Amino acid sequence: MLKKEVIEASDELVKETFWQDVFRSLRKDRMAITGGIVIVLFILMAILAPLIAPHDPYEVNLDNQFQKPSLQYWLGTDMFGRDVFSRIIYGSQISLLIGIVPSLITMSIGIVLGIVAGYFGRRTDFIIMTISDMVLSFPSLLLAMVVMYTLGASLLNIFIALSIVGWAGTARVVRAQTLSLKNKEFVEAARAVGVKPRIIMLRHILPNCIPQLLVLFTLEIPGSILSEASLSFLGVGAQPPASSWGLMVSNGKEFLFNAPWVAIAPGIAILVIVLAFNFLGDGLRDALDPYLKQ
């Protein structure tokens, strides 16, 4: 019993030291820190949108059509006289929601299927990986468009479409990690004492996949944001009067020459948040990869 407690204490110390090294490496990465700060600011902007938006983003005032950026309208107004800055603030709610929720769903599906395929192998592995290969063989945006055209344009259907096209990559990464872990001594020891496969997968294999999953998650979110922007630009994403950034770019593309701010401002918002997540993901990858630390 004492030996078991010593081993558990040693494992906890190793984990604590590992995460301390990760945070120490992240603090030295200025791009990752900058990305993290920008992400936090966008999240706060989405949460506090009703408090910080200077105008009603849905209020139509045709007398204020295409007002240039000014002290009253920081980023000008659109074709309906709506404040572009306020719509970008409210649009962060939809864009971040579409970035985070489908990413969580795809990660969950990919984790479950990847661990099951890697641990049990044989026919289970063959079936899951065959389905994964079929999903990966289609261009993700094209497949998402097919799903959206089939189900109809709505926020819920965007979640479904992005979840269907995004899980396969995560499943393959988790499967590879599971294959490398399931024959390790600590897994063999757990199996030898009669620990159930479900417990082994949850308590011994999954925790060791968390570093890779964190990186995948930070890179999956900007992919979902860009996919939603593409779907909205093509007319099958968020629908009016929603203030999704992709929809704003789509609505403003016809006025690029006489009112460029209508499309450029939300486009810059998409660019900034995607870069921020990519910077943070790159920093996490460098901090979590032992080979890059050498």
Task: Walk me through what this model shows.
The chain is mainly alpha-helical and 294 residues long. It has twelve helices and no strands. It has helices at residues 2-28, 30-47, 49-52, 84-120, 122-137, 140-151, 155-181, 185-192, 197-233, 245-252, 261-288, 290-293. Helix 6 (140-151) crosses helix 7 (155-181) and helix 8 (185-192) packs across helix 9. The chain is elongated, with a radius of gyration of 23 Å. The protein starts with a helix and ends with a helix. This is Peptide ABC transporter permease. Its main location: membrane. InterPro entries: BP-dependent_transpt_permease, MetI-like, MetI-like_sf, OppC_N.
Topology:
Layout: H1 2-28, H2 30-47, H3 49-52, H4 84-120, H5 122-137, H6 140-151, H7 155-181, H8 185-192, H9 197-233, H10 245-252, H11 261-288, H12 290-293
Helix pairs in contact: 1-11, 2-4, 2-11, 4-5, 4-7, 4-9, 5-7, 6-7, 7-9, 8-9, 9-10, 9-11, 10-11
Report how far apart the termini are: 38 Å
Q: Order of SSEs, N→C?
A: HHHHHHHHHHHH
Number of strands: 0
- Oligomerization: single chain
Mean pLDDT: 82
Number of helices: 12
Brief characterization of the structure:
InterPro entries: BP-dependent_transpt_permease (IPR050366), MetI-like (IPR000515), MetI-like_sf (IPR035906), OppC_N (IPR025966). It contains twelve helices and no strands.
